[in-house]
Amino acid sequence: MAEEEKLPIPPTFLEKVLFYTTASFVLLATFSLFAFLFLVPFVIEPAFTTIFMQFDPVGALCVTAQVKHLVGASNCTWASCREGCTKDLYECTQIRVNYKLGEYPNVTSTEFENLIRAERSLRRDYDYENNYEAPIDTIPEMEDQELPDAIPTGLQGNDSEWYFTGARLFPNVKGCGYPPILNCTIFYGKYRPLGTNYTCYYSRVDPGLVITDLDMWQNTLNLVYAMAIPIPSFIISVIYLTFAYFKIYNTEEESEQAPLQSDAEGMATGDDGKPTTPGSDTFREDLACFGHQLKMQLANEKPKEGFESNSPPISNSASLSG
């Protein structure tokens, strides 16, 4: 009968801990890398852009001056709001505003509307046609109308009411987002009507860029979270995996190869400790002894019946060893 197969040695507690620890760090490194790559276009890059554009934290007073609804990829070079930051634009709505600085800081839209009504009541001869602005009382009648294309844009002089005219309006620095954080239907419903008054924030780097929402504290917090969690997690995982590969697992392999190396060293030296050569008597004796041991080991692994029928006579084995 064949000898029973040897059962594998169950792993020790330390080996289990090492295995699960290594697997955990591999998963942590993988998820950290993919999380960072996902956060770059959606959180990190917009947060850095918001900081670099240097938006004035003091709100300016904006009035919708022009609205365009365009169709075609060549016409839609930009859009005031779009749901999805990667899709191509074939239909877009562009809103341009006029804004002025620092006259009524930190007021609500209702208070601002009342202030504008009072200001306009004192100037009944104001030329709205030339400035492309509609009185508040006529906003419902002009919601679906567009002003002429020749709207003046750029910084205005000291004699002008506005600091900048024809600025592009966006909900954020990228002008895009995803529901429920950004809903373009609500955005257009709130800011599209001509003559609508609201608080906005302009960029000191590009005064022609205006956004409706600005929270620098939340923007900085999102940037810190997006970088402080995945990057250190990935670095720590890589450091542990490198240490485990070169130190822990490499030591185990060396311990397993130690008996083989000792046997090889024993064959390379004789009983007197001197190195053996292929032509020496000591080398031939060691080789014959090794062959005999190998043959006996192979014979013990075979079934007993097969060994008795197939094994050569003892005399032959003795002659071969001689």
UniProtKB/TrEMBL annotation:
Q: Name one GO molecular function term.
A: sodium channel regulator activity
One GO term under biological process is: regulation of sodium ion transport
Task: Please give the Pfam families that the UniProt record associates with this protein.
Answer: TipE
| Polar residues: bias regions | 308-322
Region (Disordered) residue spans = 257-284, 301-322
Q: Where is it found, in Gene Ontology cellular component terms?
A: plasma membrane
Cite the InterPro entries for this sequence.
TipE
Q: Please list every transmembrane segment annotated in the UniProt record, as residue ranges.
A: 17-44, 223-246
| Swiss-Prot/TrEMBL keywords | Membrane, Transmembrane, Transmembrane helix
Q: Report the protein name in the record.
A: Protein tipE
**In which organism is this protein found?**
Papilio xuthus
Tell me the classification of the organism that encodes this protein: Eukaryota, Metazoa, Ecdysozoa, Arthropoda, Hexapoda
